[in-house]
Amino acid sequence: MEHCYLRHANGLKLVRQLLQRAENGRLGKGLIGCDSLAWSYLQRLWSVPRPDALTLQAFDSSRLARLLSSMTVCRSGRRVHFRNAVNGNSILTVPSEDDRVRSEIVQLAAYCRGNVGTAVRYWRERLRSEPEAEPSEPSNSEEIEQTDEPDEESVWGTGVLPEPVMPAGTDEDFALVLHVLLLHGGLPESLLSQLLPLSHPRCMALLLRLCNAGFIQYREDRWSVPELAYATVRGLLRGRAYLTDDF
């Protein structure tokens, strides 16, 4: 539904009709998908309670570890061992050797607030084929072998990825652009000046600066907030008392 409305007086007719028909049963049985932040906004627009609204349960560290294990392809029967690229400590083994969940998985689940899509993208982005240069001593005093066992393949995971840094300028204008992109699940640049109290040239300048800083991306003719920047953007908007989702 995030693509069925525009947040101005003349852009809400379609989504109001959709919600009304869904409520009175004229659409029949089915599922309607909606981005979480757009749903927070539409609940204020359409105040009829929806007890049947569902969302995917947030993944804790144990569920996330099981998911990452299930997504790992073991070649030729070899065990895959994910290790910390800085100190060599074990993060995850597939097949698993025990039920312990390492601190890196716990931190990842917490940072992404259980959002499985964001967590998986973040996990993949951290993977490397080689360790960092001059690894430090293991932090938990485990004895780490630096060479793979014959039946084991090592994959290295970097530390926490650096968060994007807000460009210099008027922070409120940047926040306005980021918020409207999240509300609509991404937008073409031609619509931004219709939804914001900013001129088209000003919107374009803000988009390009946010893109260069890693806060947004341009894909399939739309500007949107990528998965790796979502947690940072959500925290920034929440700190400024903007409407955010509850998930």
Keywords:
two-stranded antiparallel ribbon; 6 strands; 4-stranded mixed beta sheet; Arc Repressor Mutant, subunit A; 9 helices; globular; alpha+beta; 247 residues
| Terminal residue distance | 17 Å
Overall helicity: 40-55%
Tally of contiguous helical segments: 9
Mean residue pLDDT: 86
Largest sheet: 4 strands, mixed
**Bulk shape:** globular
- The count of DSSP E runs of length 2 or more, i.e. the number of strands, is 6
What strand order characterises the main sheet? 2-1-4-3
Whole-angstrom Rg: 22 Å
What structural class is derived from the secondary structure elements? Answer: alpha+beta
Spans of at least 5 consecutive residues with low confidence: 141-148
SSE run:
HHHEEHHEEHHHEEH
Beta-strand content estimate: 5-15%
Describe the overall structure.
It is a single chain. It contains 9 helices and 6 strands. It is of the alpha+beta class. The longest helix has 13 residues. The strands form 2 sheets. Strands 2-1-4-3 form a 4-stranded mixed sheet. The protein has a two-stranded antiparallel sheet with strand order 5-6. Among the domains are: 97 residues, no CATH class; 69 residues, Winged helix-like DNA-binding domain superfamily/Winged helix DNA-binding domain (Arc Repressor Mutant, subunit A, Orthogonal Bundle), CATH 1.10.10. It is globular, with a radius of gyration of 22 Å.
Blueprint of the fold:
Blueprint: H1 13-24, H2 36-45, H3 61-71, E1 79-84, E2 90-94, H4 103-111, H5 116-126, E3 127-128, E4 152-157, H6 171-183, H7 189-195, H8 200-212, E5 217-219, E6 222-224, H9 227-239
Parallel strand pairs: 1-4
Antiparallel strand pairs: 1-2, 3-4, 5-6
